[in-house]
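Q: Okay, next protein. This is Gfo/Idh/MocA family oxidoreductase from Paenibacillus contaminans. I've checked the sequence twice, so it should be correct. Can you predict the 3D structure?
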Amino acid sequence: MIVRIGFIGAGGIAQDHIRVLKKMEDVKIVSVFDVNADNARRTSEATGALVMDSADQVLDKQRIDLVFICTPQFARGELEVVAASRGIPFFVEKPLGVSAEAVRQKAKIIRETGIIHAVGYVLRYYDTVRQAKQYLEGRRPHLIQGTRFGGSHPAKWWKQLEMSGGHLVDTATHQVDMIRYVAGGINKVQAAFGRVSFDRTEPESTIPDAGTINFFMDSGAVGSLTESCLSPFHASSEIKLFGPDFFVHLSHNGSHLTIIDNERNLTVTAELDPGYAQCRALIDAVKSGNQALILCDYDDALKTLEVTLAANRSSEERTGIVL
């Protein structure tokens, strides 16, 4: 079976997916739409896909077996719901949106359709991340530390809080999701964000340039995540988990894993391309009808979104937010 794929949105993240999909013999990219006509044209030239006049035209069950929705979170509308209601399996990029209530409403509809789908928390597909998750089963860390430092997205919309949600919601969400994936649920957050530099250098922006989030886990563990999207001279993305008799460190966005305990001192580097593994799992799920092959579904991704949006609210209201 050849899985016919449509793309809605053909920017940078879509190109990452197209790169790995082109390596698979059982898929064919057949249609594409992007509000940027040059993006759509380039994708068409690279894949042979037909350029469609609208997102709705891409969502044609007679033409495609799967759709990749790679539009920005503020511009996504009801695309996931439309795909699900038409019986089209879908992949949608993270984050799911900038309004938890709107996403909850979509989650309910998607859940009721039972459609095969996936959300782009790609770091879950690192073999190192899964190894850490397996190691931590039955173990209880008491402290978790996370960081995400780096640069800003070049698009103007990204620096508007109401459109992107800010660096935490859009980017450091990967570290929040990784913490949830390997260590369990988060039930309360307290956060503080600042704009010391953006107020001076980019006053037209509305997102913070740095933030610190304290969180409480269902397990009883406590933790923190520190992030900045204005760190041109130092980049870092990692989580550390401390237990009474173990230490787990996922660095370089999860591609490097260190485990230290009384019996081992192990450091390994990922062997899998998580982008390929993510797309391969989705294709296999569509072909087999087995949603269990997917490591992150809409409901699970919603929980990560709720944590990050609660952090934004906590900073604004200067109080802790219970989830």
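A: Here is a summary of the prediction. The first strand starts at residue 3 and ends at 8. The mean pLDDT is 97.
Q: Noted. On to the next one.
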